[in-house]
Amino acid sequence: MMVWVTLLAGLALLPLLLKLLSPYFLQDLVYIWRAVGFGVRLELYKRRTPFYSILDRFLDFTRRNPHKPFIHFEGNTYSYSDVDRRSNKVANALRMVAGLKEGDTVAMFLGNEPCFAWVWLGLAKLGCTAALLNFNIRSRSLLHCFSCCGASVLIAAEDLRGAVEEILPALKEKGISVYLLSDECSTDGIQSISQAIQLASDEPLSLSLRSNLKARSTAFYIYTSGTTGLPKAAVVTQERVWAGSFVQGVSGVTAEDVFYINLPLYHSAGFMIGLIGCIERGNTAVLRRKFSASQFWDDCRKYDVTVMQYIGETMRYLCNTPKKDNDRDHKVKIAIGNGVRADVWKEFLKRFGNIYVRELYAATEGNIGFINYTTKVGVVGRVNVLHKKLFPYALIKFDIEKEEPVRTADGLCVPAAQGEAGLLVGRITKKSPFVGYAGNEQQTEKKRLRDVFVKGDIYFNSGDLLKIDHENFVYFQDRVGDTFRWKGENVATTEVADILSMVDCIEEANVYGVTVKGHEGRIGMAAVTLKEGNEFDCVDTCKVVANYLPVYARPRFIRIQESLELTGTFKMKKVKLVEEGFDPALIQDPLYFLDLNQKKYVSLTLDIYNSLLAGDIKL
C-alpha cells in the first residue's frame, strides 16, 4: 500500500519537478507534438495523386460548412460558399475572356478587400500562378515587379487604374492583357471585366483544369520588401503554402477562432499566415484595408476577435494610443507576428492583458524559421532536437567589415559560440529547399552559401544575425548590412534604435552607418521623428546614449525627419539615407552632431562638417 502511495505522490510531484528542472519542458512537448502532426499531414498530402493543395482544403471545408463566415469586411460578411461561388465566376470569366489555362502566370494588383480572396482562388482553380503585386509601388518598381514574374495578364483594382496607366505603354509593347475590376473603362489597352464576372457561371470547375499540380509547383510569387533595392519575386511552392498556413495551428489557433488581418495581403504574413492560415484552420477572418491603431480594439470587440497579427512597429503604435478604461475589454488571446521590441512587448502585455505573443522569425524565400511558443519575452524561438534534425541550420561567425562569413585556412566556415551573434544559415536539402527568385538567377545564387562545413555542401544565407543563449532561446540581433563596424567593433542598429526610443522626445529611430572621409568603417547616424509637441533635446539624448551605449555605438549624427520612410510591412528603408550621409549642404532636415566635449548634440553646421572631413575634429 505504501508503495502505491509513494508512487502516486511521486507522480503528483512530477509536474512541479519538471517545472523546476526544465521550466519549458511541457511547452516544448506541446510544440513538438503539433509540429510532428502538421509534418505528417504534409507528407500525406504530397503522396496523394493528384497533390492535395490548400485549394482542395478550401473546397472540402466549404462542402462541410458552406454557411460558416469566412470574411468580415466593412459591415459585410461572406461565407465560405459565397467566396467559393464568386471564385467560380472569376475563373469561368477569365477562362472565357482571357483564355487563361493551367501554367499561366497572372499578376494581381489589388488592395486588402474580399475580392483578393476570390480572384486568387479563381486563378488557383484554373491552375494559374498568381504574382501578388504590392499596391503601393508605382512606375519603374511596378513595371519591374510585373516583368520579372513572366506574367501575361494583369488584373487590377479600379482605384489602381492610374498606376496601371503609368506603365501601360510598356505593357502594350509586351502584349500584356490588362483587366480592370470595374464595370467600364475607356482607356485604350485596359478592359473592364466586372460585368463578365457577374454574368459568368458559378458552377464548379473541373479538376482536370489543374491536373498537373504537384508539391513543387509554383503557387504564387511574393515580393521582398525592397529595403535594399528593387523587390525580388520569391517563388512560393504549393508545399510552402501549406507550411506557411500551419503557423496558426502551431500557435494554438483553432477553427473556433476569429483572426484579425490588417496586414497587406501581398505579403506572406497577411496572406499565407493570415488568409490561407484561416482556410487551413477553417476559421473566420476579419479583413481591414489597412492597419488603424485607433480602430484596432473597437474592431476586435465588434467581431469577437481572438487572434491578432502584428509586424514591425504595430504593437508600439497600439501602446501609443491614449489609455482607456476598456483596454482589456476584448477576447484576443493570441498575437502572431514578428519584429516587436522587448520593451514594447512588456508594455503591450501590461496594458492589454495576458495575450500569448507568438513572435516568429522567417523569410518568405527562406528554408529555416523559428517561432516562440513559450511565454519568454524578447525571443524569436527555441532550439529543439526535432527542429534541427528536420531543418538543419547553424549560426556561423561573420565578418561585419568584409560582410562575409569568417573562414578557416581550409576555406570552411566557423560555428558561432553560444551567446555570440552569428549569421543564420539553413542547409538546402530535399525537405528544406531554397527555390529562389523568379527571373533572377544572380540574386538566387547570392543567397546560396557553399562549402560551409564540408566541401560541396550548400546552405541558404539568411542575411540575418541571430544568437542562441545558454537556455537554447533564439534572439534576432540584426540584418547583415544594417550592422556596421566602427572603431573595430560591431554596432547593431536595432540595439541603438531601442536605446534612442528611450529618449523622452523621440518617437521613432532608424539607425544606420555612414562613411566619413579618411576613416575606416562606418560611423553611427540615426534618422528620428519627434513626439508631437516636442523639440529635440540635445542634452537628454546625449545623456541616454552615454548611459546605455559604449562610445563606439553612440550615433554621432542625428537627422530629424517629419516621418520615416517605411515599406508596406513597416520595415524602415535605409539605402537612401545611407547614400545621403550627413552633408548639411544637401540635406534640408535639421542635423545634429554629438560633441563629446560639450556632452550634448549640437547643430551640424557647414563649418563642423568641413572640419570633420579635414580631420580637425576627432571621431
From TrEMBL:
CDD domains: hsFATP2a_ACSVL_like (cd05938). Gene3D superfamilies: 3.30.300.30, N-terminal domain of ligase-like. Its EC number is 6.2.1.3. GO terms for biological process: long-chain fatty acid import into cell. It is found in: Cell membrane. Residues 495-571 form the AMP-binding enzyme C-terminal domain. It holds the Pfam family AMP-binding. GO terms for cellular component: endoplasmic reticulum membrane; plasma membrane. GO terms for molecular function: long-chain fatty acid transmembrane transporter activity; long-chain fatty acid-CoA ligase activity; nucleotide binding. Keywords: Cell membrane, Fatty acid metabolism, Ligase, Lipid metabolism, Lipid transport, Membrane, Nucleotide-binding, Transmembrane, Transmembrane helix, Transport. Residues 62-372 form the AMP-dependent synthetase/ligase domain. It is a multi-pass membrane protein. Belongs to the ATP-dependent AMP-binding enzyme family. It catalyses: a long-chain fatty acid + ATP + CoA = a long-chain fatty acyl-CoA + AMP + diphosphate; a very long-chain fatty acid + ATP + CoA = a very long-chain fatty acyl-CoA + AMP + diphosphate; tetracosanoate + ATP + CoA = tetracosanoyl-CoA + AMP + diphosphate. The lineage of its organism: Eukaryota, Metazoa, Chordata, Craniata, Vertebrata. This is long-chain-fatty-acid--CoA ligase.
